[in-house]
Amino acid sequence: MKKKKNNLILIIPAFLLMGAAVGVQTKELFKHTITGLIVGVIVYFFLRYRNKRMNN
Q: CA 37 → CA 21, 32, 52, distances in Å?
């Protein structure tokens, strides 16, 4: 069987774009984009840690 690729890093730009979309709607683009980036990085590290623990 083919090994599944780990696309976990794609979480960060997804949250960044979601924050930008919310920012466009609320007229606070910079604030929501930065918030989305921070949340994306936190979720990335949390999921990476969880996957590492589950594989061991």
A: 12, 9, 23
Neighbours of 19 (CB within 10 A): 22
Q: CA separation (Å) from 8 to 19, 24, 30, 47, 49?
A: 18, 26, 25, 8, 11
pTM: 0.81
Q: What is the pLDDT of residues 1-53, one digit of tens each?
A: 566 667 888 899 999 999 999 999 999 999 999 999 999 999 999 999 998 88
CB-based contact 16:33 (threshold 8 Å): yes
Round to whole Å and give the CA distance between 6 and 14: 15
